Amino acid sequence: MSMIVMIGDEEVLDLCQQQENDYFDRKSARMKPSQVQDAAVGFANAEGGTLVIGIEDIAKEEVPLKRWVGKKSIEEYNGFIQSLSGLNPGIDFSHRFLFRDGTLTRDYVLEIVIRKSLKVHETASGDVLIRRGASNIKLPAAKVQELMRAKGIISEEDTLLTTVAPDPIIDGLPLRNFLSSLSVTNKDPLAFSLQERLIDAKSYAPTIASALLFSENPSAVVPRQCAVKIVRYDSSHEEIERDHLTDDRHTIEGPLKQQIELAFITLKEVISRCICWSMEGLSAPTYPDEALYEVLVNSVLHRDYAVSDNVLISVYRNRVEFRSPGRLPGFVTTKNILDARFSRNPKLVRLLSKYPNAPNKDLGEGINTVVERMRKAGFIDPSFIEDGVSLSVTLHREPKGEFATIITNFIKQHRKITNRQALDLLALDSAEQITSIFSRLRDQGIIAREDETQTGIRVKWVLGKGKKV
């Protein structure tokens, strides 16, 4: 049964004036029913959205409320519903009919909510569209393949390396060592590779998965970048200048298990050279090992190997950022990342988990472990940002405690504090934030300048009146 809803002028105005974007579109009721497929397919292939039919464009009618020009009966929209229902594969959508409160006659407007799909959809004419801004963009064949990978329908791990000889991989030490660790009767590398579809049964061409897992140096045979890069910046700022980039730069290659293990060791060493102020004095910042390791493993295992880029780990004075190439797979978003489970590279995940000391032994619990360990260490929660090209996960060293308490405790221990020390201690992004905090604490009488003649970076702060060291 269809839902018929009466709405007031405030909601009507919002629908008539709302900016069309990635998640909202409106069309005239004069459009052909078949045209509804473009918007619906575009939303389903992207992040989902709302389509409203029965509102005229501003070019036709300048007065917002007069743009509400629907149909006199809901039956007149049957062609639109049938057009959507006829798509194959089907689109997940719901709809309702809206009419204005207080009008003598009812002009019905059709509101359709299209949900994000794990499938790739096309219109009846065969066009694959995706919503970008206020437009539905037609995708060429190559981009359709990218969309299928992003949705997890296909994985780059199964792509054949037709120009790569299989022998160095099949007969190589990484695969033999792996097989020797398994409790299987037949440890023949060729039989195993065929069974696991790591090579093509007809051409014997190896897959990208086989090269990533068992090639001595995957970067030499995989056509796209697949290493881990680690760099260090001597800065806490959000906007980083190249002058802050240190010589502490590393590129880690090798089969995945070895790459992960070496990258973790290297990351720990790089962090140890990032000397900052802490409550105890100058020392290397500390992050929970499990948090660092789990984000590293996820960045390598769940990245999109169709994207020619390396996993990039950037170490700053106040945070560690992991950038993994590719969008989040399937239905996973930055909002449900703690609860959703979807593997872009299931073969890599499954085979790597067979090692005795598998880096992904706690399958599916990695991100939850990261958040739990950071909270236990007294830090704020990690941040997750997807920009359509890559996923960035940042471990912040910012403490969850009261800034005033942390600052006064430091002064009690070291007798005074500077902007530089506070910036490190609170792990914030800019000196302006510290200046604001100091100003507020000074106004409250909690701290005071050691010498009122001091200015700028030379200012040192001590406890205010009534506060004893």
What are the key terms here?
32% helix, 4 domains, 16 helices, alpha+beta, flat, single chain, 469 residues, Methyltransferase, Cobalt-precorrin-4 Transmethylase, Domain 2, Heat Shock Protein 90
Can you tell me about this structure?
- It is a single chain.
- Helix content is 32%, strand content 19%.
- A hairpin with a 2-residue loop joins β10 (276-278) and β11 (281-283).
- α15 crosses α16 (431-443).
- The protein has a six-stranded mixed beta sheet, covered by helices on one side.
- It has helices spanning 9-17, 36-45, 78-85, 141-150, 167-170, 173-180, 189-195, 208-214, 218-221, 256-272, 289-301, 346-352, 366-376, 403-414, 419-426, 431-443; strands at 3-7, 24-27, 49-53, 93-100, 109-114, 129-132, 135-138, 228-233, 245-252, 276-278, 281-283, 311-315, 319-325, 383-386, 390-396, 417-418, 447-449, 460-463.
- The longest helix is centred in the middle third of the chain and has 17 residues, at 256-272.
- The chain has four domains: 3-139, Schlafen, AAA domain (Methyltransferase, Cobalt-precorrin-4 Transmethylase, Domain 2, 2-Layer Sandwich), CATH 3.30.950; 156-221, no CATH class; 228-396, Heat Shock Protein 90; 403-463, Winged helix-like DNA-binding domain superfamily/Winged helix DNA-binding domain (Arc Repressor Mutant, subunit A), CATH 1.10.10.10.
- The chain is flat and about 75 Å long.
- It is of the alpha+beta class.
- The N and C termini lie far apart (73 Å).
- It has 16 helices and 18 strands.
- This is ATP-binding protein.
- Keywords: ATP-binding, Nucleotide-binding.
- GO terms for molecular function: ATP binding.
